[in-house]
Amino acid sequence: MNIDSIKSVELEITSNCNAACPGCARTLNSDILEVTSFSFNDLIRLFPSKEYIEGKRFKFCGVLGDPLIHTEFIDMAEYLVTNGCKKLNVSTNAGIGTKDTWLRLGDLAYNNKAVVIDFCIDGHSETNHIYRVNTKWNVIERNLNAFVSKAKHMSSNSCWSYIVFDHNEYEIDKAVSHAKKLGLEFAKRTGMRNSYYNWIAKIGKKNAKQEKIITTTGDKEHKDKDKVLQLEKIITEKKVNADILKTIKCKYVHQNEIFIGADLTMWPCCFLYDSKFKNLENINGKLSKYLTNWNSLVDKSIDQVLQHPYYQGVLEDSWNPSHELHMMRCIKTCGYNQAYHNKKEFV
Questions:
Q1: Which has the closest alpha carbon to 63: 7, 101, 17, 130?
Q2: 3-220+255-307 in CATH: which number?
Q3: I need a surface site. Which of 80, 238, 271, 283 has the fewest CB within 10 A?
Q4: Model's pTM, two decimal places?
Q5: β 257-260/8-11 pair status
């Protein structure tokens, strides 16, 4: 595979964020978090001309940060759209970014239907801050209004994405009505993390006693939870076979996608980047057989990293449990045709 065959690129332009969501990797692992970002110039260096961008899908999201907190975000977005990207998806809690940035983003959406914003707002005025800790409703409303005022009818391409918890379920109707008024799609979202665990949200003023609220999903669990638990059982009982491996739908191998982290390392997906951050299954120890900068884009092009043996075949070979670089996470998160992945139900 080379840069020409890459169809999708997920960009974590920063690991910084204004929020402290209790289920987020940066909140749960604050002791090892190192805030990094890459620049607009870095993006231009990696995608220097239209031929590197045109026809590709780009997503500003990531594992640790919110793209709108990056001071050069809108310049990056405009650059990719101007150079013909097929789709530009932006995932954000909407509680950060200047009004001017949101007006420019609305203009961008109005002038190009490729722009799609995923507003991750889990509640309304009374509850959103419980999971999206530290976000302020008046800022979110200001940003939503600024975006829609420019995007106008094209705002319907974007979506209010709502994780339903016990504490915010009563505000769904209010949120649906608000989304409709803004011209946004509305979707209830479930994720396996929130079906596994109940998170403790710490809300309150800084430097003061914080209120602790347990966030639970109750009966609003991920629709493929049973499939994921079955995969875990198969992995635990060491019953992984060729038929199970054939059910893996890999973002890199099967969907021609790459993930670029805020530290300018390139990974096949956000899941392995997350594993690297937390050193799950001793991934860093296993990959130490390679040079320390083997997947770094600081001094290499995307094509150069793609020529590394890991991308040329080792990744797919490592799905086999007998392989020295085997990561159970590949089976767990992408087995059974990506059963683990987030699901949306449009309302």
A1: 17
A2: 3.20.20.70
A3: 238
A4: 0.96
A5: parallel
Question: Which residues contact residue 51 at a Cβ distance below 8 angstroms, ignoring those fewer than 6 apart?
Answer: none
Instruction: Centre a 10 Å sphere on the Cβ of residue 264 and count the other Cβ atoms it contains.
Output: 21
Q: How confident is the model at residue 62 (pLDDT cuts 50, 70, 90)?
A: confident
Domain boundaries, the chain: 3-220+255-307, 223-248+319-347
Q: Which residues pair with 201 in a beta bridge?
A: 213
Radius of gyration of the chain (CA): 20
Helix segments in 33-158, DSSP class H: 40-46, 50-53, 73-82, 99-111, 128-131, 137-151
Q: How many angstroms separate the CA atoms of 330 and 304, rounded?
A: 24
Non-local CB neighbours of 346 within 8 Å, separated by 6+ positions: 159, 185, 186, 187
The two structure tokens encoding residue 251: 């973002």
What is the average per-residue pLDDT within 196-208?
A: 82
CB-hemisphere CA count at 13 Å for 208?
A: 5
